[in-house]
């Protein structure tokens, strides 16, 4: 996936949570017309991809049965796939939800468990032939922030991501369909998040496109207490997106699409001007 006739910079993946309880936009787009309206706004604001989820992964969130998740996401995916050309990702850990989402028109399976939630996840991903995002998480959403521990967080995240990519490849997922994601905020302290954001180049060097999801996350409020409300965290989110751009990530998963796209366009123009001047 690349952007046609535009400066080289990370794709912007707009987040659309069809959940009552997501930490930053929960309950806002609960019915299909409201969700569709928000999806169209995100596309108009410059989203290159959309990530649609029907289950919150915030710390302490309650699990959602597959039928409910499917009922939340598939009508919106089907309507969007009919009317828009923007690639659609489904944010789910359940193979049955991924399968229903692909049948409705999604082409990317974004799995925060890196295809570990169900024993058949890797096989279903291979069978669906979709793109897959393999994300790092220590523990599970309910308890992951209790006491995260690492020796060398970057090395451990890289080892995990490579092992999950190998498991996907062994099951028959094509190499060019695999994305990796360090999982900012998933079983990580402030220092773990910052270490990873400072060493995104090491994850990029693994040789797969990297997706970065730092948008509106709690570490921003830890660094800047005035940004306690998730909607107040756009500037910090953009700072993280620019760190990702500098390290060569392929896409950033964000809530504030217009502001992020603007920041990345300016960043890319400055980089290009510097490259044009280089001897
Ligand atoms: N973060 C969230 C959810 N899904 N997927 C990937 N690949 N990377 C991420 O960093 C990531 C993700 C959490 O953010 P959000 O969707 O806004 O909240 P919630 O999980 O509460 O719906």
What is the strand and helix layout of this fold?
Blueprint: E1 11-17, H1 32-44, E2 49-53, H2 66-83, E3 88-91, H3 95-104, E4 108-111, H4 121-128, E5 131-135, H5 153-171, E6 178-181, H6 190-198, H7 200-204, E7 211-212, H8 218-223, H9 234-247, E8 251-254, H10 257-277
Parallel strand pairs: 1-2, 1-8, 2-3, 3-4, 4-5, 5-6, 7-8
Helix pairs in contact: 1-2, 2-3, 3-4, 4-5, 9-10
The protein binds 6-hydroxymethylpterin-diphosphate.
6-hydroxymethylpterin-diphosphate (HH2) is lined by residues 15, 17, 19, 22-24, 53, 56-58, 91, 110, 112, 133, 135, 181, 183-184, 211, 213, 253.
Defining key terms:
279 residues; alpha/beta; TIM Barrel; 8-stranded parallel sheet; binds 6-hydroxymethylpterin-diphosphate
Describe the structure.
This protein has 279 residues and is an alpha/beta fold. It has one domain (9-57, 67-273): Alpha-Beta Barrel (TIM Barrel). It is 44% helix and 13% strand. The protein contains 10 helices and 8 strands. The protein has helices at 32-44, 66-83, 95-104, 121-128, 153-171, 190-198, 200-204, 218-223, 234-247, 257-277, and strands at residues 11-17, 49-53, 88-91, 108-111, 131-135, 178-181, 211-212, 251-254. Strands 6-5-4-3-2-1-8-7 form an 8-stranded parallel beta sheet. It is globular and about 55 Å long. The two termini are 31 Å apart. Residues 15, 17, 19, 22-24, 53, 56-58, 91, 110, 112, 133, 135, 181, 183-184, 211, 213, 253 line the site of 6-hydroxymethylpterin-diphosphate.
């Amino acid at each position: 996936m690349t952007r046609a006739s535009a400066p080289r910079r990370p794709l912007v993946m707009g987040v659309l949570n069809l959940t009552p309880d997501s930490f930053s936009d929960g309950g806002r787009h609960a019915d299909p017309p409201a969700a569709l309206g928000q999806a169209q706004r995100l596309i108009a604001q410059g989203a290159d991809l959309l990530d649609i989820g029907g289950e919150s992964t915030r710390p302490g969130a309650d699990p959602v049965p597959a039928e409910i998740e499917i009922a939340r996401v598939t009508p919106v995916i089907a309507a969007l796939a009919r009317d828009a050309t923007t690639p659609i990702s489904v944010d789910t850990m359940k193979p049955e939800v991924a399968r229903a989402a692909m049948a409705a028109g999604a082409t990317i399976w974004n799995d925060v468990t890196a295809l570990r939630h169900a024993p058949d996840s890797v096989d279903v991903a291979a069978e669906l032939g979709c793109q897959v995002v393999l994300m790092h998480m220590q523990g599970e959403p309910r308890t992951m922030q209790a006491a995260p521990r690492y020796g060398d967080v970057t090395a451990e995240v890289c080892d995990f991501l490579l092992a999950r990519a190998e498991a996907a490849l062994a099951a028959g997922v094509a190499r060019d369909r695999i994305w990796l994601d360090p999982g900012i905020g998933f079983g990580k302290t402030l220092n773990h998040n910052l270490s990873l954001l400072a060493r995104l180049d090491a994850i990029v060097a693994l040789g797969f496109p990297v997706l970065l999801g730092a948008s509106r996350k709690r570490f921003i409020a830890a660094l800047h207490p005035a940004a306690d409300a998730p909607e107040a965290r756009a500037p910090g989110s953009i700072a993280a997106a620019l760190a990702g751009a500098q390290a060569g990530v392929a896409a950033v998963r964000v809530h504030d699409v217009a502001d992020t796209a603007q920041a990345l366009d300016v960043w890319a123009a400055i980089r290009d001007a510097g490259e044009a001047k280089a001897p």
